[in-house]
Design goal:
This protein is mostly helical. Helix content is about 55%, strand content about 5%. Helix 5 (about 105-120) crosses helix 6 and helix 11 packs antiparallel against helix 12 (about 235-260).
């Protein structure tokens, strides 16, 4: 059992509705590679932010914060429990804590874009590693937009150019549950899951989406590597192995991110009854 089945059980136990905070499940065109809930699962419990946007749309954590908060309050107004589900740490943070307002410099960003265009992503990666090793370990180094933005922020902070954080307050409390497995078990599941996605038609799905390959959503693990396969930059075997490798790296970054949430409670996914009891007890204390 994973987070999808657990979220359904929690929603059924506590009259909840699910808000997806998986930054790729928003897009209706991305299906096999994003492990969305199936039709039967979507019918069991109301879901929000699953198939809610098109890959042609540009969507950000800032937009999700605004729309997600409105959805939380709407669900609560009907006496239901909002249950945020997903592994995109930035998007979860956006809802329960608010997004930092980091510094910005258009001229510096233009310069970094020139570096990216003329010298490639590796140079920006190395620059980030030098400026902010912790951030270097935490972000998706294959995502040019995020690497560039991280370098921009690090450069400005180095110059002493910062802005006070302006996180909006929240009028609700959160119970944060993180699911985690033994590393060997986790990696075995990742490898099996990737093989299953290939069997279900991920290659064909990516081929149909190649006209959108420049869109941010297509930088998703699984889609990015197979797009390189179609460009003849990778063999099929290399692409599949790289998907597994990058998925493992992503899982490691997720664990690093959630470890920073000091109020999080960690469980193994098999501890379903224990988790439900914990949530029940936590909700009763808040009444």
């Amino acid at each position: 059992m994973g987070k999808t089945e657990l979220s359904l059980k929690l929603a059924e136990a506590f009259q909840g509705e699910i808000i997806s905070a998986d930054s790729r499940q928003f897009f209706m065109e991305l299906n096999i590679g994003t492990a969305k809930p199936g039709l039967d699962e979507l019918k069991r419990v109301p879901h929000h932010f699953v198939n809610s946007h098109s890959i042609a749309d540009e969507y950000s954590a800032g937009k999700f914060e605004k729309e997600g908060l409105a959805t939380i309050h709407e669900i609560a107004s009907r006496g239901k429990l909002p249950i945020i589900v997903g592994g995109s740490g930035l998007y979860i943070d956006a809802l329960i804590h608010g997004i930092d307002q980091p510094p910005s410099d258009p001229e510096l960003r233009d310069s970094l874009n020139e570096t990216l265009e003329n010298h490639g992503l590796v140079q920006l990666q190395e620059r980030l590693k030098s400026l902010d090793p912790e951030k270097y370990e935490a972000i998706d180094l294959n995502n040019p937009r995020r690497v560039l933005r991280a370098v921009e922020i690090a450069e400005l902070e180095k110059r002493g150019i910062t802005k006070p954080l302006k996180k909006p307050g929240r009028n609700f409390e959160s119970i944060i549950i993180v699911l985690n497995r033994d590393r060997t078990e986790l990696y075995e599941r990742i490898n099996t899951r990737v093989d299953q996605m290939i069997e279900k038609g991920l290659v064909e799905e990516v081929e149909e989406l190649l006209p959108f390959r420049q869109k941010q959503a297509m930088q998703t693990v699984g889609y990015r590597e197979l797009a390189s396969y179609f460009d003849k930059q990778l063999s099929f075997e290399e692409a599949v192995n790289l998907i597994k490798q990058n998925t493992r790296r992503y899982a490691k970054r997720q664990i690093t991110w959630f470890k920073r949430m000091k109020s999080a409670h960690w469980f193994h996914p098999a501890e379903q009854n224990k988790i439900i009891h914990f949530v029940k007890s936590s909700l009763e204390k808040r009444l």
